[in-house]
Batch of 2 targets.
Target 1
Amino acid sequence: MEEIKDDPMAFYRNEDPRCPHCLESISISDNELWYLYQEECHEIDCPNCGKEFAISSEATWRFTTAKEIDEL
Ligand SMILES: [Zn+2]
């Protein structure tokens, strides 16, 4: 676990936010943290260790295309 703690990339742009205190990945759905999908900075109490940490949320867009709109 020490390796993760010392690696800033372990906390960067993860699919699930990782607590910088206990290093757990926090499941958005298991913890019903849907508001984290708003693109802004948040402060939460870690559901695993209870310590507060900050999260910056960022959305990734995907585009699906078809020849006609009713095919989407
Ligand atoms: Zn934690």
Note: Helices lie at 2-5.
Target 2
Amino acid sequence: MKHYSSYWERSVLLRKFDFLILGAGIIGKQIALKIRKKNPNARIGIVDRSPISYGASTRNAGFACFGSVSEIVDDFKRSSQHEVMSLLNKRFQGIQQLVQTFGADQIGYRNTGSYEIYTDQEEYQDARNHFQTINQLIQDYTGQANAFQWQKSDKLQMACFEDCLFNPLEGMINSGMLNETISELTHKAGIIPLYGLNITSLNKDAGGYTLIADNDLSLSCSQLIIATNAFSSQLMPELDVVPARGQIILTKPIADLPFDGIFHNDKGYIYFRNIDDRVLLGGARNYFEAEETTYDFEGSSANFEHLKKYMQEIILPGRSFEIDMHWSGIMAMGEEKIPIVKKVDDHLTLCVRMSGMGVALGPVLSDEVAAFFD
Ligand SMILES: Cc1cc2nc3c(=O)[nH]c(=O)nc-3n(C[C@H](O)[C@H](O)[C@H](O)COP(=O)(O)OP(=O)(O)OC[C@H]3O[C@@H](n4cnc5c(N)ncnc54)[C@H](O)[C@@H]3O)c2cc1C
């Protein structure tokens, strides 16, 4: 429906903003909060096409993690040691900040620890060969001498190798609670919600930017911060940002689950955890790369069946279960597994391409963005 502006809208409600943040996921909202802290009197708005955000933030697995050994070994094949360690440090610091800032109870954080289970001989051998080096490399950041520790996996009752790697520094959050807590804080901070607006173009003008929505409503601002993650290349096709769909299945409650924690397998491409006596399992997009490079939220039956088989054969062998839900979220990837955080010009800043790590990276990257305006 086309929007025809009134004088009251033009002169008051939609008058120029000092800061507009486009994208109300956990990254956009944390940026808004950090900017508010430094600019108590600024007129700040946050724009989204969806009433509750619709991308990755409300649709992920709720892991508070900074990387399993096989994921880190895999990252070393693509990026320098310095880059991998710098990212790992930001993820680790980010998790601490999430808990300190928002409160463990408010975001459903539990420090359960994580397990990397093994189902592939080569991956297991790689982990055996590299875990000590990785322990030494991350000690400076975590302060823990042996973050990754070998444990027997028999208590988990899964169909995996008899040794797994336990990391006591990782844990789980409740993604619904994290999003709700951050949203409430943005309301309290007087950030103006501008939801239900699908922005189709950005126009630069003398003193800032104007955003045009598909209903013709326009919003102008002095400073525009783009936090649309996977969807950023729809507005700025020159960006190296491609969508990566992550599918999740959730069982109905199961009595006496023999494990409590977050679990990694297959270089981080498989992830699962318990939640409310259920098992939540996601991933396997590496087996369906072409299909999963999409903005489409409707999951596919091939990935669904793959996850269901994994649930039965690896996580719950010999147990019966029913699938209650199947959903997906859209992550942002690119050539490099590094987020894009930069000032494009005097009025435009980007904080996009979270590469599937935005839960952990959000606190530190939002600090980086806010620092552009010191
Ligand atoms: C299945 C899955 C598992 C994950 N696991 C982990 C994990 O273990 N650890 C971790 O740290 N992270 C994980 N992530 C990634 C994490 O959820 C994301 O990195 C993070 O949520 C990104 O937040 P964001 O705010 O940048 O983007 P999003 O949450 O995608 O928000 C972007 C917002 O922009 C809005 N938008 C886009 N285009 C427009 C437009 N044109 N006009 C108006 N609004 C627009 C969208 O509606 C959306 O609300 C996972 C993600 C998924 C999907």
Note: The chain has two domains: 7-58+177-240+336-371, 68-173+242-333.
